[in-house]
Amino acid sequence: MMASVHSPSRGCIDIRDVTVSFSQNGASLDAVSGISLKVEPGEFVSIVGPSGCGKSTLLNIVAGFLSPTRGEASVDGAAIRGPGADRGVVFQQYSLFPWLRVRENVEFGLKMQGMCSSERQSKARTLLGLAGLLAFENHYPDQLSGGMKQRVGIVRALATGPQVLLMDEPFGALDAQTRVVMQEILTNMWQQLRLSVLFITHDIEESIFLSDKVYVMTARPGRIKAEIPIPLPRPRTAEMTSSPTFVAIQQQLKALIREESLAAMGGELADGGLGRDWHLGSEGVRAAL
Amino acid sequence: MASAIRMRSVHDAEALGAGDPAGPAAAGHPVAVPLVAVPPPAPPVAARPVVRPAAKASADGAVPPAWPVRLLAMVRAQVPSFLLAMVSIGLLIGFWYLATAYRWNFYIRFTNVPSPGEVYSDAVVLFGDPKFLTNIGISLWRIMLGFCIATVLGVSLGLLCGRYALLKGLMFPALEVIRPIPAIAWVPISIMLWPTTETSIVFITFIGAFFPILLNTLHGVGAVDRVLIRAARCLGASEFALMTQVVLRGALPHIFTGLAVGMGVAWVSLIAAEMISGQFGVGYFTWEAYSLIEYPHIVIGMLVIGVLGLLCSGAIRLLAKIVMPWQGTGGKENA
Questions:
Q1: Structural domain count, chain B
Q2: Which domain holds residue B104?
Q3: What is the ipTM, given to two decimal places?
Q4: What confidence tens digit (pLDDT) does each residue in B186-195 have?
Q5: Which residues of B touch A84 (CB under 8 A)?
Q6: Residue B53: closest CA among chain A residues belongs to which residue?
Protein backbone atom coordinates (compact mmCIF):
# COMPACT_ATOMS: atom_id res chain seq x y z
CA MET A 1 0.00 0.00 0.00
CA MET A 2 2.75 2.37 0.95
CA ALA A 3 5.09 1.37 -1.84
CA SER A 4 2.43 2.01 -4.44
CA VAL A 5 2.34 5.69 -3.53
CA HIS A 6 5.81 6.30 -4.89
CA SER A 7 6.24 6.53 -8.58
CA PRO A 8 9.90 5.93 -9.36
CA SER A 9 10.25 9.16 -11.30
CA ARG A 10 9.65 11.36 -8.27
CA GLY A 11 11.67 12.41 -5.30
CA CYS A 12 14.62 14.11 -6.94
CA ILE A 13 16.56 16.39 -4.58
CA ASP A 14 18.65 19.00 -6.30
CA ILE A 15 20.99 21.28 -4.37
CA ARG A 16 22.76 23.83 -6.55
CA ASP A 17 25.67 25.93 -5.35
CA VAL A 18 24.21 26.46 -1.89
CA THR A 19 25.93 28.66 0.66
CA VAL A 20 24.66 29.35 4.17
CA SER A 21 26.18 32.21 6.13
CA PHE A 22 25.61 33.20 9.71
CA SER A 23 26.65 36.52 11.10
CA GLN A 24 28.61 36.26 14.29
CA ASN A 25 29.85 39.38 16.08
CA GLY A 26 29.32 41.33 12.90
CA ALA A 27 31.48 38.97 10.85
CA SER A 28 29.89 36.74 8.24
CA LEU A 29 30.65 33.07 8.76
CA ASP A 30 29.92 30.35 6.21
CA ALA A 31 28.47 27.12 7.59
CA VAL A 32 28.42 25.48 4.20
CA SER A 33 29.87 26.94 1.05
CA GLY A 34 29.10 26.34 -2.62
CA ILE A 35 27.59 22.90 -2.23
CA SER A 36 25.99 21.11 -5.16
CA LEU A 37 24.61 17.63 -4.91
CA LYS A 38 21.87 15.56 -6.34
CA VAL A 39 19.77 12.68 -5.09
CA GLU A 40 18.17 10.83 -7.97
CA PRO A 41 14.67 9.41 -7.52
CA GLY A 42 14.87 6.26 -5.43
CA GLU A 43 18.51 6.77 -4.57
CA PHE A 44 20.02 6.39 -1.10
CA VAL A 45 22.61 9.09 -0.54
CA SER A 46 24.65 9.68 2.59
CA ILE A 47 26.63 12.68 3.69
CA VAL A 48 29.56 12.08 6.03
CA GLY A 49 32.00 14.56 7.48
CA PRO A 50 33.66 15.71 10.69
CA SER A 51 31.46 17.16 13.39
CA GLY A 52 30.44 20.74 12.83
CA CYS A 53 30.97 20.60 9.08
CA GLY A 54 27.40 21.61 8.27
CA LYS A 55 25.92 18.21 7.40
CA SER A 56 22.79 18.96 9.35
CA THR A 57 22.63 22.46 7.90
CA LEU A 58 22.32 20.88 4.49
CA LEU A 59 19.53 18.59 5.65
CA ASN A 60 17.73 21.50 7.29
CA ILE A 61 17.73 23.30 3.96
CA VAL A 62 16.08 20.38 2.21
CA ALA A 63 13.63 19.96 5.11
CA GLY A 64 12.73 23.63 4.76
CA PHE A 65 13.83 24.79 8.21
CA LEU A 66 16.52 27.01 6.77
CA SER A 67 16.82 28.95 3.54
CA PRO A 68 20.20 29.17 1.83
CA THR A 69 21.95 32.55 1.71
CA ARG A 70 22.93 31.85 -1.88
CA GLY A 71 22.07 29.08 -4.28
CA GLU A 72 18.94 27.03 -4.59
CA ALA A 73 17.51 23.77 -3.36
CA SER A 74 14.58 22.03 -4.99
CA VAL A 75 12.63 18.80 -4.82
CA ASP A 76 11.20 17.55 -8.13
CA GLY A 77 11.94 20.90 -9.70
CA ALA A 78 9.97 22.93 -7.15
CA ALA A 79 12.01 25.27 -4.96
CA ILE A 80 11.76 24.47 -1.24
CA ARG A 81 9.59 27.01 0.55
CA GLY A 82 9.36 25.53 4.05
CA PRO A 83 8.67 22.25 5.76
CA GLY A 84 6.03 19.98 4.31
CA ALA A 85 4.66 16.47 4.39
CA ASP A 86 6.18 15.68 0.98
CA ARG A 87 9.53 15.32 2.75
CA GLY A 88 9.57 12.99 5.74
CA VAL A 89 12.15 13.81 8.38
CA VAL A 90 13.62 11.44 10.96
CA PHE A 91 15.45 13.16 13.79
CA GLN A 92 18.31 11.95 15.94
CA GLN A 93 16.38 12.67 19.14
CA TYR A 94 13.37 10.58 17.95
CA SER A 95 11.13 13.62 18.52
CA LEU A 96 8.04 11.54 19.15
CA PHE A 97 5.21 13.46 20.80
CA PRO A 98 5.39 12.21 24.38
CA TRP A 99 1.69 12.90 24.97
CA LEU A 100 0.55 10.70 22.09
CA ARG A 101 0.47 6.94 22.08
CA VAL A 102 2.56 5.15 19.47
CA ARG A 103 -0.33 4.79 17.03
CA GLU A 104 -1.43 8.40 17.52
CA ASN A 105 2.12 9.51 16.76
CA VAL A 106 2.01 7.63 13.47
CA GLU A 107 -1.45 9.04 12.73
CA PHE A 108 -0.37 12.64 13.33
CA GLY A 109 0.59 13.44 9.74
CA LEU A 110 -2.54 11.74 8.39
CA LYS A 111 -4.67 13.72 10.81
CA MET A 112 -3.09 16.91 9.52
CA GLN A 113 -4.12 15.86 6.02
CA GLY A 114 -7.68 15.62 7.26
CA MET A 115 -8.01 11.87 6.92
CA CYS A 116 -10.91 10.44 8.89
CA SER A 117 -10.27 8.67 12.16
CA SER A 118 -11.05 5.09 11.16
CA GLU A 119 -9.07 5.31 7.94
CA ARG A 120 -5.95 6.70 9.56
CA GLN A 121 -6.22 4.20 12.37
CA SER A 122 -6.18 1.28 9.97
CA LYS A 123 -3.36 2.81 7.97
CA ALA A 124 -1.28 3.41 11.09
CA ARG A 125 -1.93 -0.12 12.29
CA THR A 126 -0.81 -1.55 8.95
CA LEU A 127 2.43 0.44 9.07
CA LEU A 128 3.10 -0.44 12.68
CA GLY A 129 2.46 -4.08 11.84
CA LEU A 130 5.05 -3.96 9.07
CA ALA A 131 7.54 -2.44 11.49
CA GLY A 132 6.73 -5.05 14.11
CA LEU A 133 5.33 -2.57 16.59
CA LEU A 134 1.63 -3.38 16.56
CA ALA A 135 1.79 -4.82 20.06
CA PHE A 136 2.97 -1.43 21.27
CA GLU A 137 0.43 0.76 19.50
CA ASN A 138 -1.10 1.89 22.79
CA HIS A 139 2.17 2.56 24.59
CA TYR A 140 3.53 5.99 25.23
CA PRO A 141 6.95 6.75 23.69
CA ASP A 142 8.58 6.87 27.12
CA GLN A 143 7.75 3.20 27.56
CA LEU A 144 9.77 2.15 24.52
CA SER A 145 13.46 1.43 24.02
CA GLY A 146 15.54 3.73 21.83
CA GLY A 147 15.49 1.38 18.84
CA MET A 148 11.71 1.02 19.05
CA LYS A 149 11.26 4.77 19.37
CA GLN A 150 13.27 5.35 16.23
CA ARG A 151 11.29 2.72 14.33
CA VAL A 152 8.16 4.61 15.31
CA GLY A 153 9.88 7.80 14.16
CA ILE A 154 10.60 6.26 10.75
CA VAL A 155 7.09 4.85 10.40
CA ARG A 156 5.63 8.23 11.34
CA ALA A 157 7.72 9.97 8.69
CA LEU A 158 6.61 7.41 6.08
CA ALA A 159 2.92 7.49 6.96
CA THR A 160 2.07 10.50 4.82
CA GLY A 161 3.71 8.85 1.81
CA PRO A 162 6.58 11.31 1.20
CA GLN A 163 8.73 11.17 -1.94
CA VAL A 164 11.81 11.90 0.06
CA LEU A 165 13.06 10.75 3.44
CA LEU A 166 15.54 12.97 5.26
CA MET A 167 17.41 11.33 8.12
CA ASP A 168 19.58 13.36 10.47
CA GLU A 169 21.91 10.92 12.26
CA PRO A 170 18.87 8.83 13.09
CA PHE A 171 20.84 6.10 14.84
CA GLY A 172 23.35 8.37 16.52
CA ALA A 173 21.75 8.04 19.95
CA LEU A 174 21.54 4.24 19.85
CA ASP A 175 24.06 1.75 21.19
CA ALA A 176 26.30 -0.02 18.68
CA GLN A 177 24.38 -3.32 18.59
CA THR A 178 21.00 -1.67 18.16
CA ARG A 179 22.42 0.56 15.47
CA VAL A 180 23.56 -2.41 13.37
CA VAL A 181 20.10 -3.99 13.50
CA MET A 182 18.43 -0.66 12.71
CA GLN A 183 20.66 -0.31 9.65
CA GLU A 184 19.50 -3.69 8.41
CA ILE A 185 15.89 -2.79 9.03
CA LEU A 186 16.34 0.47 7.17
CA THR A 187 18.07 -1.06 4.16
CA ASN A 188 15.33 -3.69 3.88
CA MET A 189 12.61 -1.07 4.16
CA TRP A 190 14.29 1.04 1.52
CA GLN A 191 14.59 -2.02 -0.71
CA GLN A 192 10.80 -2.33 -0.61
CA LEU A 193 9.87 1.32 -0.81
CA ARG A 194 12.49 2.70 -3.15
CA LEU A 195 12.10 6.28 -2.06
CA SER A 196 14.87 8.83 -2.17
CA VAL A 197 16.81 9.10 1.07
CA LEU A 198 19.23 11.77 2.20
CA PHE A 199 21.05 10.34 5.18
CA ILE A 200 23.34 12.31 7.47
CA THR A 201 25.82 10.39 9.58
CA HIS A 202 29.34 10.46 10.93
CA ASP A 203 29.53 6.67 10.94
CA ILE A 204 31.53 5.60 7.89
CA GLU A 205 30.48 1.96 7.93
CA GLU A 206 26.86 2.94 8.23
CA SER A 207 27.09 5.23 5.22
CA ILE A 208 28.72 2.54 3.06
CA PHE A 209 26.34 -0.19 4.14
CA LEU A 210 23.22 1.83 3.37
CA SER A 211 24.07 4.06 0.44
CA ASP A 212 24.30 4.14 -3.31
CA LYS A 213 26.49 7.20 -3.06
CA VAL A 214 28.41 8.87 -0.25
CA TYR A 215 29.38 12.54 -0.17
CA VAL A 216 32.30 13.50 2.05
CA MET A 217 32.27 17.02 3.41
CA THR A 218 35.21 19.15 4.45
CA ALA A 219 35.64 20.83 7.82
CA ARG A 220 33.88 24.16 8.24
CA PRO A 221 33.03 25.85 6.02
CA GLY A 222 31.55 22.65 4.63
CA ARG A 223 32.26 21.86 1.03
CA ILE A 224 31.91 18.63 -0.91
CA LYS A 225 35.32 16.97 -0.74
CA ALA A 226 34.51 13.77 -2.57
CA GLU A 227 31.65 11.84 -4.12
CA ILE A 228 32.10 8.10 -3.64
CA PRO A 229 29.78 5.68 -5.44
CA ILE A 230 29.15 2.43 -3.54
CA PRO A 231 29.12 -0.44 -6.05
CA LEU A 232 27.99 -3.10 -3.55
CA PRO A 233 25.08 -5.20 -4.83
CA ARG A 234 21.55 -4.97 -3.45
CA PRO A 235 19.99 -6.13 -1.26
CA ARG A 236 22.68 -5.41 1.26
CA THR A 237 23.45 -8.00 3.91
CA ALA A 238 25.49 -7.89 7.09
CA GLU A 239 28.15 -10.19 5.54
CA MET A 240 29.05 -7.55 2.96
CA THR A 241 30.71 -5.42 5.61
CA SER A 242 33.73 -7.73 5.45
CA SER A 243 33.93 -7.93 1.65
CA PRO A 244 37.08 -6.50 0.00
CA THR A 245 35.12 -3.79 -1.82
CA PHE A 246 33.53 -2.64 1.41
CA VAL A 247 36.83 -2.59 3.26
CA ALA A 248 38.57 -0.71 0.46
CA ILE A 249 35.91 2.00 0.41
CA GLN A 250 36.00 2.13 4.16
CA GLN A 251 39.75 2.77 4.13
CA GLN A 252 39.39 5.42 1.50
CA LEU A 253 36.61 7.22 3.40
CA LYS A 254 38.48 6.97 6.69
CA ALA A 255 41.53 8.62 5.18
CA LEU A 256 39.44 11.41 3.69
CA ILE A 257 37.60 12.12 6.91
CA ARG A 258 40.69 11.86 9.05
CA GLU A 259 42.26 14.72 7.13
CA GLU A 260 39.19 16.82 7.70
CA SER A 261 38.85 15.91 11.36
CA LEU A 262 42.42 16.97 11.95
CA ALA A 263 41.74 20.20 10.10
CA ALA A 264 38.60 20.74 12.15
CA MET A 265 40.38 20.16 15.45
CA GLY A 266 43.08 22.71 14.79
CA GLY A 267 46.39 23.03 12.98
CA GLU A 268 48.72 21.80 15.72
CA LEU A 269 47.34 18.28 15.63
CA ALA A 270 48.73 17.63 12.17
CA ASP A 271 52.24 16.92 13.49
CA GLY A 272 53.18 16.71 17.14
CA GLY A 273 49.85 16.93 18.87
CA LEU A 274 48.59 13.41 18.22
CA GLY A 275 50.44 12.02 21.18
CA ARG A 276 53.03 9.95 19.30
CA ASP A 277 55.89 11.88 20.80
CA TRP A 278 54.88 11.23 24.37
CA HIS A 279 57.76 8.85 24.87
CA LEU A 280 59.02 10.72 27.87
CA GLY A 281 57.43 8.33 30.35
CA SER A 282 55.29 9.62 33.18
CA GLU A 283 58.33 10.90 35.07
CA GLY A 284 59.53 12.72 31.99
CA VAL A 285 56.19 14.42 31.48
CA ARG A 286 56.19 15.56 35.08
CA ALA A 287 59.73 16.87 34.66
CA ALA A 288 58.78 18.66 31.46
CA LEU A 289 55.91 20.37 33.21
CA MET B 1 18.23 -4.54 19.74
CA ALA B 2 17.76 -8.22 19.93
CA SER B 3 14.71 -7.36 21.92
CA ALA B 4 13.28 -5.41 19.02
CA ILE B 5 13.53 -8.35 16.72
CA ARG B 6 11.82 -10.44 19.28
CA MET B 7 9.15 -7.85 19.70
CA ARG B 8 8.40 -8.14 16.03
CA SER B 9 8.07 -11.87 16.20
CA VAL B 10 5.92 -11.47 19.24
CA HIS B 11 3.58 -9.32 17.27
CA ASP B 12 3.62 -11.67 14.31
CA ALA B 13 2.65 -14.55 16.46
CA GLU B 14 -0.16 -12.49 17.84
CA ALA B 15 -1.37 -11.49 14.40
CA LEU B 16 -1.48 -15.11 13.34
CA GLY B 17 -3.51 -15.94 16.36
CA ALA B 18 -0.74 -17.99 17.85
CA GLY B 19 -2.06 -17.41 21.31
CA ASP B 20 0.30 -16.45 24.09
CA PRO B 21 2.28 -13.63 22.53
CA ALA B 22 5.05 -13.89 25.10
CA GLY B 23 5.57 -17.56 24.46
CA PRO B 24 9.19 -18.50 23.82
CA ALA B 25 8.21 -20.29 20.61
CA ALA B 26 7.38 -16.94 19.05
CA ALA B 27 11.01 -15.83 19.13
CA GLY B 28 12.14 -17.83 16.14
CA HIS B 29 8.91 -17.71 14.19
CA PRO B 30 9.96 -17.15 10.57
CA VAL B 31 7.37 -14.90 9.00
CA ALA B 32 7.98 -13.06 5.77
CA VAL B 33 7.48 -9.44 6.65
CA PRO B 34 7.75 -7.20 3.62
CA LEU B 35 9.05 -4.11 5.43
CA VAL B 36 11.30 -5.52 8.06
CA ALA B 37 12.78 -8.52 6.39
CA VAL B 38 15.56 -9.04 8.87
CA PRO B 39 16.09 -12.77 9.24
CA PRO B 40 14.99 -13.61 12.76
CA PRO B 41 18.19 -14.99 14.20
CA ALA B 42 16.75 -15.99 17.56
CA PRO B 43 19.81 -14.69 19.38
CA PRO B 44 20.64 -16.58 22.54
CA VAL B 45 20.86 -13.41 24.60
CA ALA B 46 17.33 -12.42 23.73
CA ALA B 47 15.88 -14.38 26.54
CA ARG B 48 13.32 -11.79 27.49
CA PRO B 49 12.12 -8.59 25.89
CA VAL B 50 13.41 -5.52 27.66
CA VAL B 51 10.11 -4.04 28.64
CA ARG B 52 9.16 -2.73 32.03
CA PRO B 53 6.68 -4.96 33.81
CA ALA B 54 3.86 -2.45 33.63
CA ALA B 55 4.34 -1.93 29.92
CA LYS B 56 4.46 -5.63 29.31
CA ALA B 57 1.30 -6.36 31.17
CA SER B 58 -0.72 -4.11 28.93
CA ALA B 59 1.11 -5.35 25.84
CA ASP B 60 -0.06 -8.84 26.58
CA GLY B 61 -3.54 -7.51 27.10
CA ALA B 62 -3.43 -9.16 30.50
CA VAL B 63 -5.61 -7.88 33.30
CA PRO B 64 -3.71 -5.83 35.87
CA PRO B 65 -3.31 -7.44 39.29
CA ALA B 66 -6.58 -7.74 41.20
CA TRP B 67 -7.77 -4.59 42.96
CA PRO B 68 -7.71 -5.95 46.52
CA VAL B 69 -4.09 -7.00 46.16
CA ARG B 70 -2.98 -3.61 44.88
CA LEU B 71 -5.06 -1.80 47.46
CA LEU B 72 -3.59 -3.86 50.26
CA ALA B 73 -0.05 -3.19 49.05
CA MET B 74 -0.85 0.51 48.82
CA VAL B 75 -2.32 0.61 52.30
CA ARG B 76 0.66 -1.25 53.72
CA ALA B 77 3.07 1.19 52.12
CA GLN B 78 1.09 4.12 53.52
CA VAL B 79 0.78 2.90 57.12
CA PRO B 80 3.93 4.50 58.60
CA SER B 81 3.31 7.90 57.05
CA PHE B 82 -0.37 7.69 58.04
CA LEU B 83 0.57 7.04 61.66
CA LEU B 84 2.99 9.95 61.61
CA ALA B 85 0.28 12.18 60.17
CA MET B 86 -2.10 11.17 62.97
CA VAL B 87 0.53 11.94 65.59
CA SER B 88 1.26 15.30 63.95
CA ILE B 89 -2.39 16.38 63.91
CA GLY B 90 -2.92 14.92 67.40
CA LEU B 91 -0.11 17.08 68.74
CA LEU B 92 -1.62 20.19 67.18
CA ILE B 93 -5.07 19.53 68.67
CA GLY B 94 -3.46 18.59 72.00
CA PHE B 95 -1.61 21.88 72.13
CA TRP B 96 -4.79 23.75 71.20
CA TYR B 97 -6.71 21.94 73.92
CA LEU B 98 -4.12 22.60 76.62
CA ALA B 99 -3.72 26.24 75.65
CA THR B 100 -7.46 26.94 75.75
CA ALA B 101 -8.28 24.70 78.71
CA TYR B 102 -5.69 26.44 80.95
CA ARG B 103 -6.23 29.88 79.33
CA TRP B 104 -2.52 30.33 78.64
CA ASN B 105 -1.49 33.95 78.67
CA PHE B 106 2.15 34.62 77.96
CA TYR B 107 2.21 37.58 75.58
CA ILE B 108 0.12 35.43 73.21
CA ARG B 109 -3.33 35.28 74.80
CA PHE B 110 -5.46 32.19 74.52
CA THR B 111 -8.04 33.63 76.93
CA ASN B 112 -10.71 34.24 74.29
CA VAL B 113 -9.75 31.43 71.90
CA PRO B 114 -12.47 28.75 71.77
CA SER B 115 -11.50 25.23 72.81
CA PRO B 116 -11.67 22.22 70.46
CA GLY B 117 -14.76 20.98 72.27
CA GLU B 118 -16.64 24.28 71.80
CA VAL B 119 -15.68 24.38 68.14
CA TYR B 120 -16.82 20.80 67.63
CA SER B 121 -20.24 21.25 69.26
CA ASP B 122 -20.84 24.50 67.31
CA ALA B 123 -19.74 22.85 64.09
CA VAL B 124 -22.27 20.06 64.50
CA VAL B 125 -25.02 22.69 64.74
CA LEU B 126 -23.64 24.82 61.91
CA PHE B 127 -23.42 22.03 59.36
CA GLY B 128 -27.15 21.53 59.76
CA ASP B 129 -27.75 25.22 59.09
CA PRO B 130 -28.69 25.94 55.45
CA LYS B 131 -27.43 29.52 55.76
CA PHE B 132 -23.92 28.30 56.54
CA LEU B 133 -24.00 25.81 53.68
CA THR B 134 -25.14 28.60 51.37
CA ASN B 135 -22.10 30.60 52.43
CA ILE B 136 -19.86 27.70 51.44
CA GLY B 137 -21.70 27.25 48.15
CA ILE B 138 -21.36 30.93 47.29
CA SER B 139 -17.62 30.95 47.99
CA LEU B 140 -17.14 27.87 45.82
CA TRP B 141 -19.15 29.43 43.02
CA ARG B 142 -17.05 32.61 43.12
CA ILE B 143 -13.83 30.59 43.07
CA MET B 144 -15.09 28.51 40.15
CA LEU B 145 -16.07 31.54 38.12
CA GLY B 146 -12.98 33.64 38.79
CA PHE B 147 -10.63 30.71 38.40
CA CYS B 148 -12.20 29.46 35.17
CA ILE B 149 -12.07 32.89 33.55
CA ALA B 150 -8.45 33.25 34.67
CA THR B 151 -7.63 29.82 33.23
CA VAL B 152 -9.18 30.52 29.84
CA LEU B 153 -7.65 33.99 29.52
CA GLY B 154 -4.31 33.12 31.13
CA VAL B 155 -3.71 30.01 29.06
CA SER B 156 -4.78 31.49 25.72
CA LEU B 157 -2.86 34.71 26.26
CA GLY B 158 0.15 32.75 27.50
CA LEU B 159 0.11 30.51 24.43
CA LEU B 160 -0.17 33.45 22.05
CA CYS B 161 2.49 35.53 23.80
CA GLY B 162 4.79 32.53 24.02
CA ARG B 163 4.52 31.88 20.31
CA TYR B 164 4.44 35.42 18.92
CA ALA B 165 7.21 37.69 20.13
CA LEU B 166 5.47 40.79 18.78
CA LEU B 167 2.35 40.20 20.85
CA LYS B 168 4.49 39.51 23.89
CA GLY B 169 6.39 42.74 23.34
CA LEU B 170 3.12 44.61 23.11
CA MET B 171 1.34 43.02 26.08
CA PHE B 172 4.06 42.38 28.58
CA PRO B 173 5.24 45.79 29.67
CA ALA B 174 1.66 46.67 30.67
CA LEU B 175 1.11 43.34 32.39
CA GLU B 176 4.41 43.62 34.24
CA VAL B 177 3.26 46.92 35.73
CA ILE B 178 0.00 45.39 36.95
CA ARG B 179 1.42 42.07 38.08
CA PRO B 180 3.13 43.06 41.35
CA ILE B 181 -0.07 44.67 42.70
CA PRO B 182 -1.59 42.16 45.16
CA ALA B 183 -5.16 41.17 44.39
CA ILE B 184 -6.32 42.61 47.73
CA ALA B 185 -5.10 46.06 46.70
CA TRP B 186 -7.60 45.87 43.85
CA VAL B 187 -10.57 45.82 46.22
CA PRO B 188 -11.48 49.56 46.24
CA ILE B 189 -10.99 50.05 42.50
CA SER B 190 -12.82 46.82 41.83
CA ILE B 191 -15.85 48.02 43.78
CA MET B 192 -15.82 51.20 41.69
CA LEU B 193 -15.29 49.33 38.41
CA TRP B 194 -17.96 46.70 38.62
CA PRO B 195 -21.68 47.26 38.97
CA THR B 196 -22.26 44.75 41.77
CA THR B 197 -20.29 43.55 44.77
CA GLU B 198 -20.62 40.04 43.43
CA THR B 199 -18.81 40.79 40.17
CA SER B 200 -16.11 42.73 41.95
CA ILE B 201 -15.37 39.79 44.26
CA VAL B 202 -15.19 37.44 41.28
CA PHE B 203 -12.91 39.96 39.57
CA ILE B 204 -10.52 39.99 42.52
CA THR B 205 -10.47 36.18 42.57
CA PHE B 206 -9.73 36.28 38.85
CA ILE B 207 -6.87 38.75 39.31
CA GLY B 208 -5.31 36.50 41.93
CA ALA B 209 -5.37 33.41 39.72
CA PHE B 210 -4.62 35.08 36.40
CA PHE B 211 -0.95 35.99 36.71
CA PRO B 212 0.43 32.68 37.98
CA ILE B 213 -1.46 30.91 35.20
CA LEU B 214 -0.30 33.34 32.52
CA LEU B 215 3.35 33.29 33.53
CA ASN B 216 3.53 29.52 33.90
CA THR B 217 1.85 29.01 30.53
CA LEU B 218 4.36 31.35 28.97
CA HIS B 219 7.20 29.46 30.60
CA GLY B 220 5.66 26.18 29.43
CA VAL B 221 5.52 27.34 25.82
CA GLY B 222 9.20 28.25 26.05
CA ALA B 223 9.98 24.79 27.40
CA VAL B 224 8.34 22.90 24.51
CA ASP B 225 11.05 21.02 22.63
CA ARG B 226 11.84 22.88 19.37
CA VAL B 227 12.39 19.56 17.63
CA LEU B 228 8.78 18.57 18.32
CA ILE B 229 7.58 21.74 16.64
CA ARG B 230 9.84 21.00 13.68
CA ALA B 231 8.58 17.44 13.53
CA ALA B 232 4.98 18.63 13.53
CA ARG B 233 5.64 21.11 10.73
CA CYS B 234 7.30 18.36 8.67
CA LEU B 235 4.17 16.30 9.12
CA GLY B 236 2.13 19.10 7.62
CA ALA B 237 0.73 20.75 10.77
CA SER B 238 -0.91 24.13 10.21
CA GLU B 239 -0.19 26.99 12.60
CA PHE B 240 -3.47 26.36 14.41
CA ALA B 241 -2.82 22.64 14.72
CA LEU B 242 0.67 23.42 15.95
CA MET B 243 -0.78 25.60 18.71
CA THR B 244 -3.52 23.26 19.86
CA GLN B 245 -1.84 19.90 19.39
CA VAL B 246 1.82 20.53 20.04
CA VAL B 247 2.45 23.79 21.89
CA LEU B 248 -0.55 23.52 24.22
CA ARG B 249 0.00 19.87 25.03
CA GLY B 250 3.73 20.30 25.43
CA ALA B 251 3.12 23.19 27.82
CA LEU B 252 0.51 21.32 29.89
CA PRO B 253 2.83 20.27 32.74
CA HIS B 254 3.78 23.91 33.32
CA ILE B 255 0.21 25.06 32.85
CA PHE B 256 -0.89 22.76 35.64
CA THR B 257 1.80 24.15 37.91
CA GLY B 258 0.29 27.56 37.15
CA LEU B 259 -3.21 26.29 37.90
CA ALA B 260 -2.13 24.90 41.26
CA VAL B 261 -0.41 28.14 42.27
CA GLY B 262 -3.27 30.19 40.83
CA MET B 263 -5.82 28.24 42.83
CA GLY B 264 -3.97 29.01 46.05
CA VAL B 265 -3.76 32.73 45.29
CA ALA B 266 -7.40 32.75 44.18
CA TRP B 267 -8.49 31.53 47.63
CA VAL B 268 -6.35 34.13 49.40
CA SER B 269 -7.86 36.84 47.22
CA LEU B 270 -11.41 35.58 47.57
CA ILE B 271 -11.33 35.40 51.37
CA ALA B 272 -9.82 38.87 51.62
CA ALA B 273 -12.39 40.29 49.23
CA GLU B 274 -15.26 38.62 51.09
CA MET B 275 -14.00 39.92 54.43
CA ILE B 276 -13.77 43.47 53.16
CA SER B 277 -16.67 43.92 50.80
CA GLY B 278 -18.68 40.77 51.04
CA GLN B 279 -22.13 39.67 51.68
CA PHE B 280 -22.17 35.90 52.06
CA GLY B 281 -19.25 33.59 51.58
CA VAL B 282 -16.95 31.79 54.02
CA GLY B 283 -14.66 34.80 54.39
CA TYR B 284 -17.61 37.02 55.21
CA PHE B 285 -18.90 34.40 57.68
CA THR B 286 -15.54 34.27 59.47
CA TRP B 287 -15.26 38.04 59.77
CA GLU B 288 -18.89 38.39 60.83
CA ALA B 289 -18.31 35.79 63.56
CA TYR B 290 -15.61 38.05 64.98
CA SER B 291 -17.92 41.08 64.92
CA LEU B 292 -20.71 39.11 66.56
CA ILE B 293 -18.33 37.65 69.19
CA GLU B 294 -19.15 34.10 68.10
CA TYR B 295 -15.57 32.97 68.54
CA PRO B 296 -16.01 29.25 67.76
CA HIS B 297 -17.39 30.24 64.37
CA ILE B 298 -14.12 31.98 63.52
CA VAL B 299 -12.23 28.72 63.89
CA ILE B 300 -14.89 26.81 61.99
CA GLY B 301 -14.61 29.37 59.17
CA MET B 302 -10.85 29.00 59.12
CA LEU B 303 -11.01 25.22 59.05
CA VAL B 304 -13.62 25.24 56.27
CA ILE B 305 -11.45 27.58 54.20
CA GLY B 306 -8.49 25.28 54.73
CA VAL B 307 -10.40 22.17 53.76
CA LEU B 308 -11.95 23.82 50.69
CA GLY B 309 -8.53 25.02 49.55
CA LEU B 310 -7.16 21.52 50.02
CA LEU B 311 -10.03 20.00 48.04
CA CYS B 312 -9.54 22.48 45.19
CA SER B 313 -5.80 21.73 44.92
CA GLY B 314 -6.62 18.04 45.05
CA ALA B 315 -9.11 18.48 42.22
CA ILE B 316 -6.42 20.16 40.12
CA ARG B 317 -3.95 17.39 40.81
CA LEU B 318 -6.57 14.83 39.84
CA LEU B 319 -7.38 16.76 36.67
CA ALA B 320 -3.68 16.85 35.81
CA LYS B 321 -3.50 13.07 36.10
CA ILE B 322 -6.53 12.66 33.86
CA VAL B 323 -5.44 15.21 31.25
CA MET B 324 -1.81 14.08 31.12
CA PRO B 325 -1.89 10.28 31.28
CA TRP B 326 1.52 10.09 29.62
CA GLN B 327 3.21 11.72 32.59
CA GLY B 328 5.26 9.30 34.61
CA THR B 329 4.73 6.40 32.20
CA GLY B 330 8.42 6.05 31.49
CA GLY B 331 11.38 5.57 33.72
CA LYS B 332 12.26 9.25 33.66
CA GLU B 333 10.17 12.30 34.35
CA ASN B 334 9.49 14.44 31.36
CA ALA B 335 8.86 17.99 32.30
A1: 3
A2: 67-109
A3: 0.84
A4: 989 998 999 9
A5: 234, 236
A6: A143
